[in-house]
């Protein structure tokens, strides 16, 4: 009795299956089961199919079919998460966020806000504002502050009482913590003016006042 072709010859493996919609020459699960039954019914009784080969063909089909299903599922999940992220970012327009940097923008008629992160109770906390040339244009003694977030605000007036020019400034702080003078982490606040979709990178970008941009994932806190 002439044996029929093996399933591996009739069913395309991962090397020759084309992605996308099912074509007329591709097999689904029902097609595969019919071929499997036909092969069992028509195999040569004197040369039955090896059990290991038979199970390998079934596993091969299940692997290819499962991978395609996972890929489609992950693609759909990614689209949903991406849409939710864009929707969340759009709701931030007009609000301020805490950035991951101590560089902030002083806009005309606006203040420059920041948050000092104190790991422990601090004494003699001092705020410094420097221009991009490194010159200290403003400093302020804030006294004692408990551990946690200390929000500060600079109205743009320098130490001589003059209005500083709009632009980018670096905000820093020092404090006496556990008897030692040390720098404290400072994070500036940024006003979200608009939101951009970075399709190439698959992320959402916040356009802050002053022309600065930052990824939504880089936001330290929402205010």
Walk me through the structure.
This protein is of the alpha+beta class and 223 residues long. It folds into two domains: 7-84; 96-222, Immunoglobulin-like, CATH 2.60.40.4070. The chain contains three helices and eleven strands, in the order αααβββββββββββ. It has helices at 7-10, 29-42, 51-90; strands at residues 96-98, 103-106, 112-118, 122-130, 136-145, 148-154, 167-177, 180-198, 203-208, 213-215, 221-222. A hairpin with a 5-residue loop joins β4 (122-130) and β5 (136-145). The termini are far apart.
Q: Please summarize the sheet with the most strands.
A: 11 strands, antiparallel
Instruction: Enumerate the spans where pLDDT stays under 50 for 5 or more consecutive residues.
Output: 1-20
CATH class of the largest domain, named Mainly Beta
Q: Categorize the overall geometry.
A: elongated
Set down the secondary structure blueprint.
Blueprint: H1 7-10, H2 29-42, H3 51-90, E1 96-98, E2 103-106, E3 112-118, E4 122-130, E5 136-145, E6 148-154, E7 167-177, E8 180-198, E9 203-208, E10 213-215, E11 221-222
Antiparallel strand pairs: 1-8, 1-11, 2-7, 3-6, 3-8, 4-5, 4-7, 7-8, 8-9, 9-10
């Amino acid at each position: 009795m002439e044996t029929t072709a093996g399933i591996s010859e009739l069913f395309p493996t991962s090397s020759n299956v084309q992605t996308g919609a099912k074509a007329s020459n591709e097999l689904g699960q029902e097609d595969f089961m019919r071929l499997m039954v036909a092969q069992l019914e028509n195999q040569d009784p004197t040369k039955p199919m090896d059990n290991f080969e038979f199970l390998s063909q079934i596993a091969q089909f299940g692997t290819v079919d499962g991978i395609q299903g996972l890929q489609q599922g992950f693609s759909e999940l990614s689209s949903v998460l991406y849409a939710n992220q864009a929707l969340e970012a759009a709701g931030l327009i007009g609000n301020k966020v805490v950035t991951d940097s101590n560089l902030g923008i002083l806009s005309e008629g606006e203040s420059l806000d920041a948050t000092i992160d104190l790991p422990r109770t601090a004494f003699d906390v001092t705020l410094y504002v420097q221009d991009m040339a490194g010159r200290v244009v403003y400093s302020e003694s804030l006294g004692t502050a408990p551990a946690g977030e200390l929000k500060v605000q600079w109205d743009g007036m320098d130490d001589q009482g003059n209005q500083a020019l709009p632009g980018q400034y670096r905000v820093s702080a020092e404090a006496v913590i556990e008897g030692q003078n040390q720098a404290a982490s400072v994070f500036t606040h940024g006003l979200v003016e608009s939101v951009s979709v970075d399709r190439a990178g698959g992320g959402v970008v916040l356009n802050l006042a002053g022309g600065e941009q930052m990824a939504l994932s880089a936001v330290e806190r929402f205010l």
